[in-house]
Amino acid sequence: MGTTSTCEFENLYEIGNICKKFNIWFHVDAAYAGSALLCPEFRYLGKGIELANSININAHKLLLVNFDCSLLWLSDHTVISTAFQVDPLYLQHTFEGMPEYRNWSISLGRRFRALKLWFVLRLYGLKNIRHLLRLHFDLAKKFEQLLTTDGRFEIVNDVQFGLVCFRLKHNNELTKKLHENLLNKGEVYLVLSSYHENAGQELDQMNTTISNQTTTTTTVFLRFVSIHGTTMKDIDYAYQKIASCATEILDQFNE
Question: Which residues in this protein are found as N6-(pyridoxal phosphate)lysine (predicted)?
Answer without folding.
Answer: 61
